[in-house]
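Exercise 4. Each item below gives a protein and its sequence. For each, produce the structure-token representation.

Item: Response regulator transcription factor (Saccharopolyspora taberi).
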Amino acid sequence: MTDEIRLAVVDDHPVVVDGVRLLLRDDPAIRVVGSASTAADAVRLAARVRPHVILLDLRLPDAMASEIVGPLRSAAPATRIVVFTAYRDHAALQATLDAGVDGCLLKDAGATDLVSAVRQAAHGIAIFDPRIGDRAAPRMRSRLHDTGLTRREYDVLRHAAAGRTNPEIAEQLGLTRHTVTGYLRNAMRKLNARNRIELISKAAQSGLL
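Answer:
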């Protein structure tokens, strides 16, 4: 992948597309290369511009997101698909997650979280907003069980993988810095990692990121 990340936004509300552009305007590495407001247009857009990442609304006028994951994969096999929704409790969310998307982000995400999610998705790291709970990845529960990581240790690890410092993680998750350090040490021990870089690497190899 080139240094520039090509992003497409699929949403039938222009204010959302404009909002994404606004939030990303200060990051020169991410370029919005197109938008679509229907499922049919989204598939055509994906085939034409082959974006690195698609932000996909849960509900479109002509289809639910779960119904077009397959067509999008066929149109642009290398593209990462991240559901972008305001409805963390919507009944259709589980079907979309089961369809095999690469992540889920809530629409109230700030600029920092949006940039981080797009960057991680573009580099092959699954990104799921922790607020959608264990529905995000049924396979994740098995992976956490296999490694012995707790959900909170995983949350801290995910933020570390996004490049956040311990103080930033503490503020984001409402923890003390000492607690964050403890969670990371536990994760290193459980994954047999000697440092933060090795921890993130082993977590990615284990399918946790």
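Check: The beta strands are 5-10, 30-36, 53-57, 59-60, 63-64, 80-85, 103-106, 127-128.
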